[in-house]
Amino acid sequence: MQPRNMSMSGAVDLAAVKAAAEAREKAEHARAERERQQAAGGAPAGNAPLVIDVDEETFQQEVMQRSTEVPVVIDFWAEWCQPCKQLSPVLERLADEYAGRFVLAKIDVDANQMVFQAFSQQLGIQGIPAIVAIVAGQPVPLFTGVTPEPQIRQVLDQLIEVAEQQFGIVGMPAAGGEAPAEREAPAGPHDGPLTAAAQALDRGDLGGAVQAYENVLAEDPGNTEAKLGLAQALLLRRIEGLDAQKVRKSAADDPKDVAAQLQAADLDLVGGHVEDAFGRLVDTVARTSGDDRQAARVRLLELFEVIGGDDPRVVRARAALSRVLF
């Protein structure tokens, strides 16, 4: 799984492209401080509990601050919620089994309504149990409802991989637990150029990022990380200087204005309205022909690249696109 500036369910937050460097820097500072404390004889991080009860007063410290060192998985639950009683023991057992790769934070929604409402409004949570991760201070919606354990393991593995690859957050082994196996691999021929391209993207040098990713793809056309980075850089470059209000008005006033629809779709995606962006472009493909249809189709495929082909919304949009094309 390649690192992405998005949630685990695919919801794009391209502000995270800019925030990623800051988050990584925070994580590095946190790890350095932790190592300093351990060198000075402080308590090792491995002694920290793996399952914690969190309330509104402790949320900032126990969840947000802790998330710079280890992924924090929030279990929103309530005493009256029977599905919660089925899911919570599974999560607690997995927290012990993963031995410090993530911390499970349990939040009673009845006792901490402000926290739950804030997440509900931001992430569109409509019920419990709801499972959300926090990585370097950024929310990552995982799943809702009782979920089979194999699927939960898959989600956790993906979360841990994204936290490590994108933010450099690897967690710490619990007391008595074994450290996670090292996954060091020989440096690939494009690791240096990819790092330089990602750094250019983080600091807003979109032209430099585009050129760097294109250079990698010229030598390795199948490099998925370069494809993702290029798609993000091109998207951010396209929306530079756009008047969002003007674009949206033009798109609403004239559905046949293909250029406005393409720009509005870009803005939709950057704003996190993934399905709106896809739906707008599928509708544009359906109502147009010739070069206009081709332009809308190509833009939709470019946005698929930003989200990732395994995202359920991409799968649904691909099916919708096939229906209007064939």
From TrEMBL:
Biased composition (Low complexity): 38-48
Any one GO BP annotation for this protein: response to stress
All residue ranges annotated as the Thioredoxin domain in the record: 39-161
InterPro entries according to UniProt: Thioredoxin-like_sf, Thioredoxin_domain, TPR-like_helical_dom_sf
Keywords assigned by UniProt, alphabetized: Redox-active center
Basic and acidic residues: bias regions: 24-37
Top-level division of the source organism's lineage: Bacteria
Annotated transmembrane regions: none
Keyword Transcription: no
Keyword field contains Transmembrane: no
Family: Belongs to the thioredoxin family.
Listed name of the protein: Thioredoxin domain-containing protein
The organism of origin for this protein: Streptomyces smaragdinus
